[in-house]
Design goal:
The complex is a heterodimer.
Chain A lengths: L1 H20 L7 H24 L1 H9 L7 H34 L6 H26 L3 H19 L6 H18 L4 H25 L21 H10 L17 H13 L1 E4 L3 E4 L2 E4 L1 H8 L3 H34 L2 H39 L9
Antiparallel strand pairs in A: 1-2, 2-3
Helix pairs in contact in A: 2-4, 2-8, 5-6, 6-7, 6-8, 7-8, 9-12, 12-13
Chain B lengths: L1 H4 L8 H12 L3 E2 H8 L3 H13 L3 E8 L2 E8 L1 H20 L2
Antiparallel strand pairs in B: 1-3, 2-3
Classes of the chains: A mainly alpha, B alpha+beta.
Chain lengths: 385, 98
């Protein structure tokens, strides 16, 4: 009877292999889209709170502006992040359970458990690492680190669910690596990584696996229903690209009794400017907005004006390249076939990096232009006795 | 001998049984991978694959790796179900003979 036992054993092994290789296919692509939207809202909230300083516009002229303490920043970002996470998980679970029921699959089974464990291990590690970074004060590392570990979690979990998750993980890791070295733009990268990428991949998965298919098993016309990706994607790109990294300095030093130094200091406070948010600047503690006002300030320095205009041109080039990359991705999404996904992937990485490079150069040029203008404003030094 | 009635004729061939087994535990496999795994000639493998594909137990996808064509096969839901049932039949068969 031994051979029969062996056969039974073999049969069970086959069954076991089948169970272990089954994938969790109830995952809903729409949950990715919602997660992306929540992430963009969270990033927008952080931007409004800390970069546009709408409160400061009121307080600075009154001289009562206090500035942001580090504690404020950490607390706000922490709450922001938790809200985005909870909202995304909730919607994700609801949509996935609904889809599972529709497909007639049990949602909580061996494959979903394996998927969960595969995601949780890198995520938990990343969470602890991020907390450690906060603890030691490396706030600027927290954003890239979350992107990196999230990407690793996705790559690990992709074995147990749809293969698109693998490419999404790689993209997140890529963005995280770039963000590690361009820390001034961490908010943009966070918004792209958790926002735009989720929306893109969520839509891809929805397109491939959830849309109604015709009886022949083909997708109707290969077109997205309604035609368009959320149009806000380009708008957001423009807004984010115009982000200025200058921060509000509120330090007011004591005036020294030495007369040359005090005169120089008075001149400096009165005549020099610094930029905020692309089209507004601060001079003598007053905030001005508008192209014309800015150009007036640059009148005193032709060199500065030239460089400033050049920086705007460079920035436009960077914007065009990024938009071209986005357009390419929209096109590949519309045709919806597998080869195009891989081309898109490389195209978007390439244009993304090149676009960022141009933006960086534009920022450096702009900063230098302001420096030149301030230097040339020294001709007012004599006038201010 | 009722168990014999449920015996799926498609899997009478050892090759098809092997093909289905391998496709059911892997996401998808290419023609060449199948050829290596099962040690078959091109023509033999192709005809079995065609038979399985005609009854919709497997599906294939043709792609190009630059100029080289690449065909991958995966088991369909129907194929999964049929194979699982067949396994059950085999198990019953063995238990009866214990």
């Amino acid at each position: 009877m031994k051979p029969n036992q062996d056969s039974l054993h073999t049969l069970n092994e086959i069954r076991d292999l089948m169970e272990r290789s089954s994938k969790f296919l109830s995952l809903s692509g729409l949950s990715g889209v919602f997660a992306g939207i929540f992430a963009l809202i969270g990033a927008g909230a952080a931007y409004i709170r800390f970069k546009t300083d709408w409160l400061a516009d009121i307080l600075v002229p009154l001289g009562t502006y206090r500035g942001h303490s580090r504690q404020d920043v950490i607390e706000f970002l922490f709450v922001d992040g938790i809200c985005v996470l909870v909202a995304s998980l909730a919607v994700g679970i609801i949509l996935t359970v609904r889809r599972g029921r529709k497909k007639g699959l049990t949602v909580w089974n061996g494959s979903s458990k394996r998927l969960l464990i595969a995601m949780l291990i890198p995520l938990a590690t990343g969470g602890i690492f991020a907390l450690a970074m906060l603890h030691y004060g490396f706030i600027w590392l927290v954003f890239p680190v979350t992107l990196l570990f999230y990407g690793l979690a996705l790559v690990n979990a992709s074995r147990f669910t749809y293969p698109e998750v693998f490419y999404m993980g790689i993209s997140e890791i890529g963005i995280g690596c770039v963000a590690l070295f361009l820390t001034g733009y961490s908010l943009i990268f966070w918004a792209i990584g958790f926002g735009l990428l989720h929306i893109f991949y969520g839509l891809t998965m929805y397109n491939r696996y959830e849309r109604e298919k015709l009886p022949g098993g083909e997708l109707p016309g290969g077109q997205l229903p309604g035609g368009q990706l959320p149009g806000g994607k380009s708008g957001i790109a423009v807004v984010l690209l115009l982000l200025v990294t200058g921060s509000v300095c509120s330090a007011q030093g004591r005036v020294p009794s030495d007369s040359t130094a005090s005169r120089a200091r008075k001149w400096y406070n009165k005549e020099t400017i610094y930029l905020r948010n692309g089209n507004s600047f601060v001079k003598n503690n007053v905030v001005y907005t508008g192209q014309k006002a800015l150009r007036n300030e640059f009148m005193v320095s032709p060199e500065g004006l030239g460089l400033y205009l050049k920086s705007r041109r460079t920035r436009s080039i960077g914007l065009v390249i990024s938009l071209a990359g986005s357009a390419g991705s929209v096109i590949s999404l519309l045709t919806g076939n597998r080869d195009n996904l891989k081309t898109f992937f490389w195209v978007s990485v390439g244009t993304g990096l090149v676009g960022s490079g141009f933006t960086m150069a534009a920022n450096n040029q702009r900063d230098q232009a302001v420096w030149l203008r301030n230097r040339d404003a020294m001709l007012f030094l004599e006038a201010n006795q | 001998m009722e168990w014999l009635e449920k015996f799926n004729k498609v899997f009478e061939s050892k090759i098809r049984l092997g093909l289905m087994s391998v496709l059911v535990v892997n996401d998808s496999l290419s023609f060449n991978e199948l050829k290596e795994l099962l040690q078959l000639t091109d023509g033999n493998l192709a005809s079995h694959l065609k038979a399985l594909e005609e009854i919709k137990y497997i599906e294939f996808q043709k792609q190009f790796n630059g100029r080289k064509p690449l065909t991958t096969y995966k088991a369909t839901d129907d194929g999964h179900k049929a194979f699982t049932e067949h396994l059950q039949v085999l198990e019953n068969m063995i238990k009866q003979n214990l």
